[in-house]
Amino acid sequence: MIKELHNKLINKEISAVELTTEYLARAKKSDLNAFITITESEALEQAAVVDEAIERGEEIPLLAGIPASIKDLLMTEGVRTTAASKILENYIAPYDATVVKKLKENGLVMIGKNNCDEFAMGSSTENSAFGPTKNPYDKTRVAGGTSGGSAAAVASDLSIYSIGTDTGGSVRQPAAFCGVVGMKPTYGAVSRFGLIADASSLDQVGVIAKSVEDAEIVFNAIKGKDERDATSTLKHENIKTLKQNNGLRGIKIGIPKEYFSEGIDQEVGEAIADFIKRAKDLGAEIVEISLPHMEYALTVYYIIQPAEASANLARYDGVRYGKLTINNKQSTNNQLIDIYKKTRAEFLGPEVKRRIMLGTYALSAGYYDAYYKKAQQVRTLIREDFKKAFEEVNLIFAPTAPHPAWKIGEKIDDPLAMYLEDIFTVPVNIAGLPALSVPAGITKAGLPIGAQIIGGWGKEEEIFQAGKTLEL
Ligand code: GLN
User: Fold this and answer.
1) DSSP strand E in 6-137: where?
2) Closest by alpha carbon to 99, among 242, 205, 27?
């Protein structure tokens, strides 16, 4: 898709401004609520610059002039950046996230900022202060989350690709729910500078695209070391990957038995079984593996994530960030506490408050050892499970989510039921591994199903190769 459009642009079959105008019109007309902000004038300006370069006969990057969108969790200079929260409703980002900067160097045309769950906490985009995003396959259903706006936009062709973020599944799960490709890089592969932090040891910027090839093109443009993010140290050139040039012959794929427990939707189970069978027909060797500590992954995640998020969100106090609720002239200490309390009570949503309370509890004196420290210890065991598995296999296959998209409102009053839907995605974040969700079928009711391809540390290339062979 990106390559085709690129060729049309350089052959002057269509101009970047024409293309952008078309996508802006579609985005404005859409009733999916996939965007919080549409950046019309910026997009047209960016497209005009690309057209001028083409006119001058310059060679342009593959991504130049391609209409894209960015999850509203990444800073975009001069453009409102809300994290889908009331507390940042009118916040204008003073600088670009490194990822955005890199895309601008590649001729980014940004159609707008995509809707998501508030501060990227949720699994359905229903926690957005700007209302839920609807699923393009069935508008009574959720688009998934937290990058639900990104997935819905790409699936309904309001943008060609979108940058999302994945702390516990937020790129892969909405991609699965909307029938598109979602890619979560290895922790440390992409800079997090300018990403509004959720849980820093888990957060990773990812890509939502219409094909695996497109996801790879975008990933290659955004990856790499950034001096502003000390964790972005991964050097792909130092990692040995296996070339899959003969279908999947010679590739060993592990199927973790823990992923196929009860509680998984029957049609999802069947689609994944088909997916595995296709890999086998293409020459892969399929073996059952075990990740014995998988059963603790969700618990570990829902201790570490709230703990880190509660610390990261302390800055939204109405003074440093966020709206001020009362006049703080001549404020005394008590008044200051009052400002904090009132601002946070009024402008943070219920799920974010819940996570702050859970996280603060897990980190508090007397409980820290029993919760946070213990969770970190079990995290190491989960990482070791994956490490051991990857000594034996090249890739791991699994469903992306246990169910297809649910009805809007169905799980909103049952946070635990919502958390349970993350069971297949969070282990990958806990271990910091790269993973891809690719379309693997459609249910009888017409809802997309995603299959997950998990790779070893730094082995993005291997998941891309397998994804390209197997995507539907
Ligand atoms: N659903 C998970 C959560 O609520 C993951 C969200 C994410 O990846 N940002 O924390």
Assistant:
1) 35-38, 67-71, 109-114, 134-135
2) 205
Neighbours of 317 (CB within 10 A): 18
Task: Determine the distance separating the centroid of ligand 1 and the alpha carbon of 183, expressed in angstroms.
Answer: 15
Q: Count, in order, helices (H) and strands (E) of the chain.
A: 15, 13
Distance separating alpha carbons of residues 109 and 48, to the nearest angstrom: 10
Burial class (CB within 10 angstroms; exposed 0-12, middle 13-18, buried 19+) of 459: buried
pTM score: 0.96
Non-local (6+) Cβ contacts of 184 within 8 A are 166, 171, 172, 204, 206, 428, 429, 434, 435, 436
pLDDT digits (tens, 9 = 90+) for 305-344: 999 999 999 999 888 887 766 555 555 667 788 888 889 9
CA-derived radius of gyration, the chain: 22
C-alpha 122 – ligand 1 centre gap (Å): 5
Q: What CA–CA distance (Å, rounded) separates 107 from 327? A: 44
Q: Which of these CATH numbers, 3.40.50.10490, 3.40.630.30, 3.90.1300.10, 3.30.470.20, describes 2-238?
A: 3.90.1300.10
Q: What pLDDT digit, counting tens, does each position of 187-223 carry?
A: 999 999 999 999 999 999 999 999 999 999 999 999 9
- CA of residue 150 to ligand 1 center, whole Å: 15
Contact between 15 and 51 (Cβ < 8 Å): yes
Lowest mean pLDDT across 25-39, 71-85, 159-173, 243-257? 243-257
- Contacts by residues 408-411 (CB-CB < 8 Å, ≥ 24 positions apart): 408/124, 408/126, 408/132, 408/134, 408/140, 408/141, 408/142, 409/126, 411/124
- 309 pocket-lining for ligand 1 (C-beta < 6 Å): no
124 lines ligand 1 (CB under 6 A): no
Give dist(CA 424, CA 102) in Å, integer: 31
Distance between CA atoms of residues 367 and 306, nearest Å: 14
Residue 299: exposed, middle, or buried by beta-carbon count in 10 A (0-12, 13-18, 19+)? middle
Residue nearest atom 2 of ligand 1, based on CA coordinates: 168
User: Which is nearest to 85 in space by CA: 117, 39, 62?
Assistant: 117
H/E element holding 206? strand 205-209
Domain ranges of the chain: 2-238
